[in-house]
Amino acid sequence: MVESVPLTWEEVARVYGRKIYNFAYRLTGNPDDAHDLVQEVLLRVRKGLANYQPGSFEGWLWRITRNAFLDDIRKKKRRPTAPLPDEVDRWELASTESADAAYARISLGDDIQKALLDVPFEFREAVVLCDIVGLSYEEISLAVAVPIGTVRSRIHRGRKILREMLS
Amino acid sequence: MTHPNELLSAYLDGELHGTELSGLLEHLSGCGKCSAELNDIQQVRAAVRSLPVLELAEGIVPEADPVVVPLRRNRGVWVGAAAAAIALVVTVAALATTPPAPVSVDDLSSRFGARVSLDPAFSPAKVVVPELELAGE
């Protein structure tokens, strides 16, 4: 795990701005929302950096990013293209009723991106943090605040759902 | 037969160790179903990872911290104030310790000339002529 902590907010912005943007874009498929999230996260990082306690900076940063993302969704009263976490348990692989609505909001004709947007949020988030952001399971565990076993399970299930959608 | 499917992604991500890793490898050597699933998951994993890295639009990440700007201005004010205070102290000290000396035209010329000579954009003629016109009015 990377334990080094950027010294200044500007360094955080430069080093992680693009990663945060890619995280948000792959979760939403919407560049404007992704830009908004980057700015919101950097604002929160700026406020919180003074009180940052040495530890997993990645876990700290991505927990902020995740919280900002979920807050933004709730604030706009707009549902993501897949159920929110509290509805995941009721989700089933065969349920694709929201696909049309989801596709309407997609700006890129990218099959993988489209499929990602139809993966339930918890699994999509785990896959994006692992495969797009490049976090370790331990870092994802800290960011999402779930045990590593849950991270392992979510990543695998997310990939299985993607496989079904892409096949 | 129990299939340790959920370990497949962890294995591909290098997150499996010890007995879990050795147990999975042993299972994979004799289970075609899990080997096929491993291959599928590997392809999906590679596909997601092949998504292009998107560049952040300019201006989203500020070039300079807006908080720093007023601090720099303030710092400039303080530096300027400090310099002015030091200059005032030095001037007062000089006036207090040295008697006023008569200033000759040569002194002014040498001081003025020296100052102009530091700036190649100015020539002595450009500076001297206006002063002569003013003197004539």
CATH superfamily of chain A: PhyR, sigma-like (SL) domain
Rounded to an integer in angstroms, the radius of gyration calculated over CA atoms of chain A is 16 Å
Q: Please identify the structural class of chain A as seen in this structure.
A: mainly alpha
CATH class membership of chain A = Mainly Alpha
For the CA atoms, what is the radius of gyration of chain B?
40 Å
Could you please describe the fold and organization of this structure?
The complex is a heterodimer of chains A (167) and B (137). Chain A has 167 residues and is mainly alpha-helical. Chain A is 66% helix and 0% strand. Chain A contains eight helices and no strands. In chain A, helix 3 packs across helix 7 and helix 7 crosses helix 8. Chain A is globular, with a radius of gyration of 16 Å. The termini of chain A are far apart. About 14% of the residues of chain A have low confidence. Chain B is mainly α. Among the domains of chain B are: 43 residues, no CATH class; 34 residues, no CATH class. Chain B is 68% helix and 0% strand. The interface between A and B is medium-sized, with 36 and 28 residues.
Task: Set out the fold topology.
The complex is a heterodimer of chains A (167) and B (137).
Chain A lengths: L8 H20 L2 H18 L8 H19 L23 H6 L6 H7 L3 H13 L3 H8 L3 H19 L1
Chain B lengths: L6 H6 L5 H13 L1 H18 L18 H30 L7 H13 L6 H13 L1
